[in-house]
Amino acid sequence: MSSNAPAITPARFAAALPELPLPSLHTKAAELRNSIAHLEASNDQLKPFADEGDVDCADAIRENEEVMKRMTDRIVLLKAEVEGRGYLWDNGVTDITGKEPGEEDVDMVNGNATSGTERHRVNGRPERAGRAGGSLSDEELARRLRERMEVDEEDGLHL
Fold first, then answer.
1. Can you tell me the distance from the alpha carbon of 159 to that of 145, in angstroms, rounded to the nearest whole number?
2. Continuous H helices in the chain
3. Which residues lie across from 108 on neighbouring strands?
4. Whose CA is closest to 40, among 72, 8, 13?
């Protein structure tokens, strides 16, 4: 990045996330973690010189720390997006396919395995049946909410 180019604001970064598929969110988080690791290694190498009074090295360490903070903030935004979609955040454990540990690689439509050409989608996202952790698919959640919101003639509205 050029030193003259302004950093993308957190708001603009967050606004772009809903359009990205789940694997891209995990990939971006992995890229950010990798960049942070390189900046930390760079700071470790610069520290002895900064400790000896090298002002340029001390400035570089401070700049790297600011960049790492922005990257960490972006990882937090990525986590919020993933969890907002109803998926578990794995903090870098899940591979970039977005599959959770132990999840089978089978395409499903209404609970039935498919040839792989059909994939049931809800709100533009693939439905994931049988997720761990008690998570519900978008359809199942909507169905349960509709059931709870039905008006009972005798008792009124149940929430």
1. 8
2. 10-16, 22-51, 55-84, 138-149
3. 113
4. 72
pTM for this structure? 0.56
- Determine the residue type at 136: L
The amino acid occupying position 39 is L
* Those residues with Cβ within 8 angstroms of residue 29's Cβ, 6 or more apart along the chain or in another chain: 75, 78, 79, 92
Do residues 64 and 4 touch, judged by C-beta distance below 8 A?
Answer: no
Q: Which helix (H) or strand (E) holds 121?
A: strand 121-122
Q: pLDDT tens digit string along 64-82?
A: 999 999 999 999 999 999 9
pLDDT category of residue 157 using cuts at 50, 70 and 90: low
Residue 117 is classified by DSSP as S
Residue that has been written with the tokens 């959640």 in this structure: 141
